[in-house]
Amino acid sequence: MAGSFRAIWAPMIAEELALWAVTIVAVYALLVATYWVSCRLVGHLNRRLGAAKIQARQTPPAQIRRDRRQSLLSLVAIAAMFGTGHWLYAEFGWGLAPARGIAGTLLSLALSLVLFDAWFYWLHRLIHTRLFYSRVHRWHHLTVTPVAWSNNSDRLADNFFLQSYWLVAHFLVPAAPFVLLAHKLYDQLTGVVGHSGYEHGGFLCWPPSPLVGVTHHDQHHRFFRCNYATHFTLWDRLMGTLHPDHDRELRRNIAATAAARRGDTSPVGSASQAGPASQAVKTSSTWPFGSSK
Asked: For residues 126 and 222, is the Cβ–Cβ distance under 8 A?
């Protein structure tokens, strides 16, 4: 009996596990390619913007190398969660049936964006509490002046909190696999841009637009106790966690980027020249729960 069981089920189990591993590897390759290409592209765009840099300070090269190495490791964990969720859905049908038609596809994508933003906001706030911050999230905040390569520089526990959405997304959203993949790639791209240090958001993020600009997360790295969301500013506005100078600085940074693209080198009051930058120098050395030393 045992021999018959092994003869019948062992090859099937091995095949499923091999498919699971291949899925994770494929997702990892796609995420790494997206990370690498987008970081290179954003770096190229940044070099043309000069004085529009949000923070005047520079990130040490050693810190950038640290963030790049950790991001490549972190993407393994993200690929494992996304790949496992997809594998369970594709092979065993675990999850909600996808919405049909173009309207259903667009609605499922919108729902995923909204749900992930809520997931990210509340769990991000949670890992900023005394109980979790030093154990889970402090690593990411060691980079006070983020660059594009900093996007995925997180510890494994951090990813489990913020990125585990992708493991269970099919149970939450009636979305086809390609919809969640499109959302994840959008999240990857906007995350890289959001850590770039230059305001690339443009008119799409002009307040009162709900879309976050680069300024939103850059302030989070400077001031720590604000701006916890990832796609939209809605939760931060509702819960009073949006930085009080967010909208004003965002407008100023958008104007600075636009001026740099026109080749206008005259001061326009970007954050690297006035206001928030001076506050950042005094504030960013103070960690949420005591000294960072």
From this structure: no
CA distance 288 to 59: 21
What confidence tens digit (pLDDT) does each residue in 17-40 have? 899 999 999 999 999 999 999 999
Supply the DSSP symbol for 48: T
DSSP bridge pairs for 211: 232
Average pLDDT of every residue of the chain: 90
- The string of DSSP codes covering 89-122 is HHHH--SPPPPPHHHHHHHHHHHHHHHHHHHHHH
pTM for this predicted structure: 0.88
Cα 221 to Cα 142: distance, rounded to the nearest angstrom: 9
> Range of 231's domain?
2-291
The CA distance from 43 to 63, in Å, is 16
What is the dihedral sign for C-alpha 84, 140, 38, 223?
A: positive
Pairwise CA distance, residues 287 & 50, whole Å = 29
β-pair partners for 286: 291
- Give the CA radius of gyration of the chain: 21
SS3 label, residue 211:
strand
What residues does 198 pair with on adjacent strands? 53
Asked if residue 212 lies in contact with residue 231, where contact means CB atoms within 8 angstroms, the answer is yes
Going by C-alpha positions, the residue among 233, 250, 251 that lies closest to residue 242 is 233
Detail the DSSP E strand segments found in the chain. 286-287, 290-291
- pLDDT of 127 strictly over 70: yes
Count structural domains, the chain.
Answer: 1
DSSP label of 204: G
Strand 290-291 to 286-287 pairing:
antiparallel
Distance CA 267, CA 51 (A): 9
Beta bridge partners of 94: none
User: What type of residue is 184?
Assistant: K
